[in-house]
Design a protein that fits this description.
By secondary structure, this protein is mainly alpha-helical. The protein folds into two domains: 2-148, no CATH class; 167-494, Neurolysin, domain 3, CATH 1.10.1370.30. Helix content is 62%, strand content 3%. The chain is built from 20 helices and three strands. The protein has helices at 2-31, 38-56, 59-72, 80-96, 100-123, 126-144, 154-158, 167-186, 202-213, 253-270, 286-300, 304-317, 327-334, 348-366, 375-387, 413-432, 436-441, 446-455, 465-473, 481-494; strands at residues 223-227, 233-237, 240-245. The protein has a three-stranded mixed β-sheet, with helices on both faces. Strand 2 and strand 3 (240-245) form a beta hairpin. Helix 5 runs antiparallel to helix 6 (126-144) and helix 8 packs across helix 14 (348-366). Bound molecules: zinc ion (ZN).
């Protein structure tokens, strides 16, 4: 058993090294690579993906799992060894269903699609993006067909991001959210936020963001923050966390965008060291991962206690722009609900409506219920119904997000699920940390990040998403109740 476990760990460590190396190339592509590097980078990523896939799906891994399974059955369910064997078995069986050529094609098409999207978005030119969208969608359909989901094909794509969750389960949660959110948005008070728009020096924004991030609980020398077009977070180990953000000189969104990515980063940073270089080093689902970016961005980063500490430093950084703006007015402005065109700029209340639109459209695309040529029109019509806004051009409409350019269908729902889950976990955090508000107001973020690390992040992928949620909250049901109650109370509080 010891020898088999050692060999399994060694093989999995190599696969992890290969995928983390591909991660470095992917980070570089999105942060520093000159645009003409695209074609070669696509080949490099495809090669690494192929080798990692071949190594992981090797029959010897299956034999090792067969040898180890009876031995780990006597161990505790959440022990590192039992979890490693169980989770690797699930990943291995899933990966074996995907032919290596298809895996390579998916990676190459995603890398090409990315740059086509960057140019198409800049020129608001959907037609130039269409062939790449078509190719990525077609390859994803072939990928989905490698599996036999219980309900619809879309569930197979969803499963990559929300393991074990069906399209129907997501649709049920969204069926509660959509009408409730539309009502909340329709009834939201108008709040003056003109002072949030002006000129904010990007260098000063960067210094301010780094100052906050240094207090969250990252070990010094284990993270960095870089500017990019479309912010994301990645990590190459739990001690090499890469945060990205963007600085718009017209607003302060970089504060919340940085906190958002830092929430993902804290998750990666908090994964137990013993799980490194194995399939257990990650979050169980994107919904759980996103619940933490949302926690830091919104539940912390838009709360009054947080700004009781940070507002004076912010005002000292931008004295002209925030001249005469009191803390209360600032907190009201950053918590307002206001329909807009862009998902990543959306406030907490309207945000999930942007996601629901994408969830509907990508199901229709996959089921071939909509011609891709008609996608912009369908997008604009639904934006008008759900959010009451008119889309002036495709750059601010159907082309605004990176996901579909890389074949990331099934990803969007995780954002809204993250919002919902963040409040389920937050209720538990509040009970566990009765002095939380006082700590936030004193600028002490460590008690919160330590609690989340010990009770959630450290688990990595040892448990399924539902098991993880149950471990933290006592229930495995995804319940939109706390999220809607939180938004309702927040918007009520703006009516003075
Ligand atoms: Zn996120």
């Amino acid at each position: 058993m010891e020898a088999a476990l050692r060999e399994l760990r060694q093989r999995l460590a190599e696969v992890s090294d290969l995928s983390r190396s591909a991660g470095v190339l992917g980070w570089d592509q999105r942060v520093t690579m000159p645009v003409r590097g695209t074609e070669a980078r696509a080949e490099q990523l495809a090669t690494l993906a192929r080798i990692a896939h071949e190594r992981f799906t090797d029959a010897q891994i299956g034999r090792l799992l067969d040898t180890l399974t009876p031995h780990v059955e006597s161990l505790p369910y959440d022990s590192d060894e039992a979890s490693l064997v169980r989770v690797t078995r699930r990943d291995w069986e899933k990966a074996r269903r995907v032919p290596v050529e298809l895996r390579e094609q998916l990676t190459r098409a995603a890398a090409r699609g990315h740059n086509a999207w960057v140019e198409a978005r800049a020129r608001s030119d959907f037609a130039s993006f269409l062939p790449y969208l078509r190719e990525n969608l077609e390859l994803r359909r072939r990928y989905a067909e490698c599996f036999e989901p219980d309900d619809v094909l879309y569930t197979a794509l969803l499963d990559d991001f929300e393991p074990g969750m069906t399209t129907t389960e997501v649709a049920d949660v969204f069926a509660v959210l959509a009408p409730a959110l539309r009502d909340l948005v329709a009834g939201a008070p108008t709040v003056d936020a003109t002072f949030l728009h002006g000129h904010f020096d990007p260098g000063a924004q960067r210094a301010f963001a780094e100052r906050i991030l240094a207090t969250l609980g990252f070990e010094e020398g284990s993270w960095r923050l870089d500017p990019t077009a479309h912010p994301f977070c990645t990590s190459f180990s739990n001690r090499d966390v890469r945060l990205t953000t963007r600085y718009n000189e017209r607003d302060l969104e970089s504060v919340w965008s940085s906190l958002h990515e830092a929430g993902h980063g804290l998750y990666a940073h908090g994964i137990a060291g013993a799980l490194e270089r194995s399939p257990l080093a990650g979050a169980p689902s994107l919904g759980l991962n996103e619940s933490q970016s949302r926690t830091w961005e919104n539940l912390v980063g838009r709360s009054r206690p947080f700004w009781e500490h940070w507002y004076e430093p912010l005002r000292a950084t931008f004295p002209d722009q925030l001249d005469g703006v009191e803390l209360d007015a600032f907190v009201r402005a950053i918590n307002r609900a206001e329909p807009g065109l862009i998902r990543v700029d959306a406030d907490e209340t309207t945000y999930s409506l942007h996601v629901i639109l994408r969830f509907e459209l990508e199901q229709a695309m996959l089921a071939q219920e909509i011609a891709l040529e008609d996608l912009p029109e369908a997008w604009n019509a639904r934006m008008s119904e759900l959010l009451g806004v008119d889309v002036p051009d495709d750059g601010r409409g159907v082309l605004q997000d990176v996901h579909w350019s890389g074949g990331g269908f099934g990803y969007f729902p995780t954002y809204a699920l993250g919002n919902v889950i963040s409040l389920q976990i937050w209720s538990v955090v509040r009970a566990a940390l009765p002095d939380l508000d006082a700590q936030l107001a004193a600028g002490e973020l460590r008690p919160l990040s330590d609690w989340l690390r010990d009770n959630l992040y450290a688990l990595g992928r040892k448990l399924t998403p539902k098991e993880t949620l149950a471990r933290v909250t006592g229930s495995d049901a995804i319940d939109p109740g706390p999220y809607l109650a939180y938004l309702g109370a927040k918007l009520d509080g703006l009516r003075t």
